[in-house]
Design a protein that fits this description.
Blueprint: H1 10-24, H2 33-46, H3 52-60, H4 68-76, H5 87-104, E1 110-115, H6 122-133, E2 140-147, H7 150-158, E3 160-161, H8 163-166, H9 172-178, E4 179-182, E5 185-188, H10 190-193, E6 196-200, E7 213-217, H11 227-238, E8 241-248, E9 262-267, E10 270-275
Parallel strand pairs: 1-2, 1-7, 2-6, 7-8
Antiparallel strand pairs: 3-5, 4-5, 8-10, 9-10
């Protein structure tokens, strides 16, 4: 029988907020405490605890269940995404940004991309399909997709999506062209999956071993961190980018006040940030 929600004790709210910030950098605002209950109750239920309060004993070190600390962090990580999210950015990539980069890199014939919060893979695979549509057979295009969650990366590598997921943002012509039916689900073709490399990466850690990248997607990430963490993440991303490379943020994010190393470039309704 599913557990009934019970109030998280005040001392446990602070414990959980501190633990989640320490382990992931995610800030749980005071008006978002309901998220702790909604996302952690299934973890408690899965391990037959009576409430979220019981999970806090594990964090305090008074009990040990393998993997539960990681499950808590994964439960608090948002994985909401869809194919071709913020379509205007993909349109501007295809018509303006990529042609500019192709001209600038025409001698090397190589472009590197990074999806820095890949979640279940839709962002990286959308980019792969866009590149395939541009007929760049004589170019070497690599796409690295990273996420903090190993669990979600495992799903991304498989490239299998429910019908409701391919109905959100994916052009109908792409479904028949790049996907194969797999029972009630749809799996993206092996050729597209091979274009993307998935690996775990905490954006708060060093990323200097990655890249160099021409385009970095880091959308809907900064909104979950405090300003100091955002500064460190942007500095780390900057260290992986080629001069003149482009950073893509969501419409809700702006690096102003966090870094001066990117200039704002508008292409129609789409906004990009180019490394100075």
């Amino acid at each position: 029988m599913p557990l009934k929600p019970s109030p998280i004790l005040p001392e446990n709210l602070k414990l959980l907020k501190d633990f989640i910030y320490r382990e992931s950098g995610i800030v749980v605002d005071d008006d978002k405490h309901y998220l702790l209950e909604a996302r952690l109750l299934p973890v408690a239920e899965r391990h037959r605890f009576r409430s979220v309060n019981d999970l806090c004993n594990l964090i305090r070190g008074t009990g040990y269940v393998p993997g539960v600390r990681r499950e808590i962090i994964e439960a608090m990580t948002t994985h909401e995404t869809l194919f071709f999210r913020e379509q205007v950015q993909y349109d501007a990539l295809r018509t303006t940004v990529l042609p500019e980069l192709l001209e600038g890199r025409k001698h090397a014939k190589m472009l590197n991309f990074w999806s820095a919060a890949a979640s279940s893979g839709q962002e990286a695979y959308s980019l792969a399909m866009l590149l395939r549509e541009m007929n760049l057979e004589d170019w070497k295009c690599s796409i690295l997709a990273t996420d903090l969650s190993e669990k979600i990366l495992s799903r991304a590598r498989e490239g299998k999506y429910m019908a409701i997921e391919v109905d959100r943002g994916l052009p109908k012509s792409y479904l028949s062209k790049y996907f194969e039916a797999s029972g009630a689900d749809w799996q993206i073709s092996a050729d597209i999956r091979k274009m993307v490399t998935f690996q775990a990466q905490d954006l708060r850690g060093s990323t200097r071993h990655l890249g160099p990248f021409d385009v970095v997607f880091c959308r809907n990430v900064l909104i979950y961190f405090d300003q100091e963490t955002c500064r460190r993440i942007l500095a780390s991303i900057r260290s992986t980018m080629r001069q003149g490379g482009y950073l893509l943020l969501s419409a809700a994010e702006n690096p102003a006040g966090l870094t001066s190393e990117f200039e704002r470039i508008a292409h129609g309704k789409a906004v990009f940030y180019r490394l100075r």
